[in-house]
Amino acid sequence: MSAVFDALRLSAVSLDVSAAQRGTPQGIAQRQQTRLAALLNFTLRGSRLYRSLWPAGTTPGTALEQLPVVTRSQLMAHFDDWVTDPQLQFDALRAFTADPARIAEPWLDRYMVWESSGTSGQPGIFVQDAQAMAVYDALEALRRSPPPKPLISSMWDPLGLGERTAFIGAIDGHFASTVSVRRLCAINPWLAHSTRSFSLLQPLGALVQALNAFAPTAIATYPTAAALLADEAARGALHIRPREIWTGGEYLAPAMRAHIARQLGAAVRNSYGASEFLAIGWECAHGQMHVNADWVILEPVDEHLRPVPAGQPSSSVLLTNLANHVQPLVRYDLGDQVSLLAERCRCGSPLPVLQVQGRHDEPLVMCGQGGRRATLLPLALSTVLEDNAGVFDFTLRQIDACTLELHLPQEGDEGHQALARCCAELQAFAIAMGVGAIQVHGKLGQSTPRGRSGKSCRIVACAKT
């Protein structure tokens, strides 16, 4: 299988990524504006949809904030008018992504294609050419901060040939992570011998057995999946000792990070990416998330799509992908809650610091005191269960305005003790939040459901009637 790869483009981008990393915030801003003008110019010439949406008189020099916000459902509904290559047609691509036998196969011999999981309510299909993939490759290779290797390990294996990497995810769909892993193994045959993919959707016992046999030195997966493996290590079923855990795709809470690091004995390195732009942010050695602002623009906004001040959490964030001219994303409503900080990091990077709260999940509207309604936020509920009750693998489902149902995988005395802690913490938190007396029903021996992409579904609001 051929791979979408341009060595010359990768070399040029890599040199620029390295230079920008050693430069100044002003240098980052200059690169950003130059690339934005090029993107707008190409989009004006090639995308019928954007030409119809943008104000008359829009030029490559038009300020970004003067352009309208777009959504996934809006773009997907007009896919053939959105893309700048008329050979890209939605119906054909949808049929392509429906066939698992064609995962990571280049489309038209020059495009990588992946689908989103649809966690934001509308699945998407995303197309990247070799130029965009070169940007993603360079950012991943040069800005991910690896933990220092032990001296003896560096002496005996300076090229890292003894590393064994396990990717754990949904491996039977055209998802960005799965496509990327297969593509990298096609480009670098030596990686195929040291990299193995494991389905997160298989029975837990089978996954643990397979990982014990492979003994990976590095694991790439979702935070909730890593926490599940940490639970298995804590109870003595998982015997691996990886050196590092790479997480992404979900919110990584501080308590969950500590749990993973403690039980698996590994450094945890978190990243921030999306189907719309693979390498949005990377975590430096000081534990701060940095935005790759030379190649992506993030605009934190409130619920009315107005800019929020630095340091304040957003309701959503608008993304502009400066690398992809084939399928332009300009002021795209990503749906994540983030905070951009004004202060520079102590690591010296010129790139801005970002705090990621994750996807804006649906809140639980409960019956409050005095007949009023009260809202419980999913992120707060997750924090209560993780930090206070010490439980990381769970499903909390709202039954009605006064009742929650908690599913835990544990059984026996361990399960009953965990359930008692969770119920006590949830009820105390509900009272503190102004919710009336709630009931929490528990079910033990229940695994956490996961969507098609392998992401966990931990907090579920009741259906609206």
Automatic annotation (TrEMBL):
It comes from the Bacteria. InterPro entries: ANL_N_sf, CapK_Type1_Caps_Biosynth. Gene3D superfamilies: N-terminal domain of ligase-like. This is CoF synthetase.
